Amino acid sequence: MTEPEQQHSHQFERGTDGPRVILVGVDGSDSSFRAAAYAGGLARRQHALLAVVYVQPMLVAGASLGAPVAETTDEVAEDLVAHIREATERVKGIFEVRWEFHTFRGDPFNGLRKAADDLKADAVVVGASEQAGHRFVGSVAIRLVKAGRWPVTVVP
């Protein structure tokens, strides 16, 4: 075996037998729920695990003023899990999807990047940004695509 072949044989390999983990970022927005529905369909057809990820923002300004930031973001996570469970119950027996819910803390880009790496995601699905300022600064989706580490699907 040549040196590059030896190095490659020990690395995580993506895409050889179809995706095993499809990661979708959710934040409670309409576009993130559309992305979750799309990713759920992909996961079902590919028999992949759907990793639903919510990145809890680190609201430093709110925390410094004494606002209960962690409680607020925990409530959002609980609401998202309840919404996902409700949706999976509605289609139970018709469409079966294996899914897990994960929370990470930080800014959305770094949280999703870390989640995709930690969960060994084969693909990342996100909703299109609904914030006007992202046309100038760059959305999370664009930053994920530019990272070039996973196939990224942006759902409008």
From TrEMBL:
Transmembrane regions: none
Highest taxon of the lineage: Bacteria
Matching CDD domains: USP-like
Coiled coil, from the record: none
Pfam family, one: Usp
InterPro entries xref list: Rossmann-like_a/b/a_fold (IPR014729), Universal_stress_UspA (IPR006015), UspA (IPR006016)
Residues of the UspA domain: 20-156
Assigned protein family: Belongs to the universal stress protein A family.
Name of the protein in its database record: Universal stress protein A
Annotated organism of origin: Streptomyces daghestanicus
